Prior knowledge:
This protein has no helices and 24 strands. Strands 1, 2, 3, 4, 5, 6, 7, 8, 9, 10, 11 and 12 form a twelve-stranded antiparallel β-sheet that branches. Strands 13, 14, 17, 18, 19, 20, 21, 22, 23 and 24 form a ten-stranded antiparallel β-sheet that branches. It has a two-stranded antiparallel ribbon with strand order 15-16.
Amino acid sequence: MRSAPRFVGVKAEAGHYESYYIKAARPTGGRGVWIRHTVHKRPDSEPTAALWLTLFDADEPGPRATKASFGGGDLSAPDGGYIRIDGAVLEPGRAIGEIATPELEATWDLRFEDPGEPFYHLPYARLYGAPLPRTKFLSPYPTARFDGRLTVSGEEIEVASWPGMIGHNWGAEHAERWVWVQGAFLDEDEPAYFDMAAGRIKLGPLQTPWVANGMLRIGGDEYRLGGFDRMLSTKVSEGPTNCAFQISGKGLRVRGRVGSEARNFVAWVYADPKGPEHNTLNCSISDLELEVQEDGKPPRRLALSGGGAYELGIRDTDHGIPLQPYPDG
């Protein structure tokens, strides 16, 4: 157990949201899956749960996506596992489930391994128990490899050593605006991964500058990036389908770009427990490029075609990505 579920200990009067999510992409890029197991609890109400599934495919006009909602009676934390919603279970080393809606039917039976350590985005352990930030997030399995089968609308898809990750976030309120970028670089002499979450927090009528926390791992070397103390050097220029960013760590600076065509994005409604709502745009088959500058060394470039993740959470609704017809909470 790398990150225990929090929804089991939430007080009746509190609001809460929580998500365990799987992202995996074909090693050659261009096809990927994103599966979310979520909990949503409004203050003084019983929790609800949902399963979300998106199949991204660059050879199709757009992603295939659906969401199924369930009552609290279909939600539990299984012994030795992370979350169970209806018949879908996520546990160490395995994810199984099915989803059936008028729009799409899918099943999955995936095994995964990750020899690496979890990545805690927040830099201090005490922040995970503090009132602020209101969103807590980590990557229990940041360098996972998936094997098994996935069936979507009758099509059987073999999942063979697909690189990906499993994330976990929870809290009482989403950031006012956020960006998430992730990718595993496979063709390098030293396998590498990059994971960055950045957010802007609303304080009264104002928003904070971007605060980002990230990790770049190359071979056996880990470089923690960002943090509150590097807020002024963090740059994020985000749009609905692409993002340019700059984030630094001790003796290391990373510049990057991530994005894809608009047709490869899916858009969802994410609701705060106390309201209001965000539109969340995601493409898990994005192109990702990094330029890594380490002190005293020549620049190094990492590139990933059709296998990175780019997510943008915003209040705006004029982003041009068709919104999935499912409410949240």
